[in-house]
Amino acid sequence: MDIRVLKSTVKVLVEEGKGILAADESTPTIKRRFEIIGLESTPETNRIYRQLLFTTPGIEEFISGVIMFDETLRQKTDGGIPFPKLLSDRGIISGVKVDKGKVKIPNFPSEEITEGLDGLRERLLEYKAMGASFTKWRAVFLIGQKTPSAVCIESNADLMARFAVFSQEVDLVPIIEPEVLMEGTHDITKSEEVTYRVLKTIFKRLMDYKVIFEGMLLKPNWVHHGLDCKNKASNEKIAEATLKVMKEVVPSQVPGLVFLSGGDSPEESTIHINDMNRIDKVSWQISFSFGRALQQKVLQVWMGDPSRIKEAQKVFYKRARRNSLARTGQYKEEMEAENGE
Ligand code: 13P
């Protein structure tokens, strides 16, 4: 392991004014996203869509890295250029989702464990040879009457820590994504309590496995009321509560927090990043690693129609730019109305 390589990758990923595009939807997830716009997901339609994103003129000003799914990392542009090469030629680094998805835990209804350690060492070497510099592993935690359970949190924490050490062993920066889901009726206080408990357990386990904090990134959820909660928290409160928990649990050596959007609207997601960057000076970079919040409107404009690619790319460019401004607290909500989508 070469710590210098890990640190230099991290530095590029959290460079000021830039964030990460999460374009690593698995086969079932991209199928669901395409269903909304009435399009069938096949390896070829998936490729055309990712090509639209990755060839958008100017995005390298705002996007430092792209997370891909195994299928995408192996795909090429119409002109035969492998996606990792296309991106690196534009100064964007490639990452890959390496977990193999979630399985239900018997005896723990509605809870899941993320799998993917079997054969991981070999896969990591293959991904590295294909041009990947970083990796991602996602685990989910559902808030309910009795969830998340200690079994769910502890077993996911252990698997995540093992993923992280395997990645660092071959100089791939691990992005750890423990997502406390927004589904549910819980209020923001409950989300704060659960996010604290999950992250506390995970960082303890990362320490046990001697994960190098300087060579990893955390991809957290923001502390947020449940989608079906009647008592909604303000954006100010969301930013404050999120920072409070992060300060309590995230070691200062971790270079960056690259937030997921978790189903919040694109505008709200940008506001949260902006607000957190305005509140306080903190030791870590506060950035984004959005899937839906960067892509939702792009899909709605594109609709699978080749004649709408340029228009969809303009939408993607604008959204990426607004998130870039939020990195330094310079985003303003009026921008949505001024420039339209
Ligand atoms: P969202 O921003 O849509 O939550 O996606 C982030 C992600 O990488 C999910 O795994």
TrEMBL record:
Molecular functions per Gene Ontology: fructose-bisphosphate aldolase activity
SUPFAM superfamilies: Aldolase
Source organism superkingdom: Bacteria
Keywords of this entry: Glycolysis, Lyase
Isomerase found in the keyword field: no
Family (UniProt): Belongs to the class I fructose-bisphosphate aldolase family.
Protein's name according to its UniProt entry: Fructose-bisphosphate aldolase
Naturally occurring in which organism (per UniProt): Candidatus Woesebacteria bacterium RIFCSPLOWO2_01_FULL_39_10b
Classification lineage: Bacteria, Candidatus Woeseibacteriota
